[in-house]
Amino acid sequence: MIQRKEEIDKKYMFGPNLLTFDFRTNKYSREVLVDVATTDSMSSFIKSSLPHILNFYDITLITGGSGCFWLDSTRYQVRPNQLLFTTPGQIRRWYAKDLQAICFFFSAKFFLNAFNDPLLLHRLQYFHTKVGPGELLLNENDAELILGLLGDMQKELNRLQPDSQKILLASAYYLLLRLERFYIQSWGKTQVNYVDKRIGKFRQLLEKYYSTHHKVASYADMLAVTPGHLNYLCKRNLGCNASELVTSRIFTEAKIRLTHTNTLIETIAYDLGFENTSYFCRAFKKITGCTPSQYRKLHIEESYTDTY
Fold first, then answer.
1. What is the pTM of this model?
2. Which residue among 153, 187, 221 closes a domain?
């Protein structure tokens, strides 16, 4: 399951109520980097509006209940047969009534150690919720299929054998690829193969430097390619150009901070690499249709209307 850390995330400075959860590797008789559990069986699972962060990947299948779920700055209506995807570092809040769900969660090391493929998780589009939906609604048959797969994994975890690691790895790999197929079909996406490994490296660099490097040329230099070629690679593999990805990442972070913190807009602008607050506000309005202060007010009012 998960292990609770009573630490404040300094990045967002939300306050002492922002909890961070680490993956618990010693739950079973030996180290296991994957787990399956129902929400009712996890005493530390937060079902309230208390904001919190996971330091691991999580896929939650809703089986009952109503309400809503906030992931970073996006609000999702909770409903049965719905999948919700969380990546490490995202801020979560639940406003759910009678929530029933089963969770599949794992450390990135679970796959990296087995396949030695640092880009594996980059190919799964549902884990890139900063540029796509973080939810997927399944039909009854598909929901039963996923529920069955999770149930089988849960049984394996409860009776570990010498070959359990291989079985869990194969089951998890099949599950993630199945979900990728469902996600692509549901949202009209295109299969991502990452023919060129530099695309995966670009996304890693973007996650690290988005607040200090706003120009495509900066990332192109790091990758030893021209800006035009980087745009070509992104267009070919991701369906959008590099500048769109950079802009999306910057302003997604702005939305997160406006939604989850009381940080001054001037400070947010400076932290995200804008020396001029007026320019930040104009750019934000061009993208979202409203000013940062209007966006913050709207989302505060929206969160107050959520009920359990």
1. 0.78
2. 187
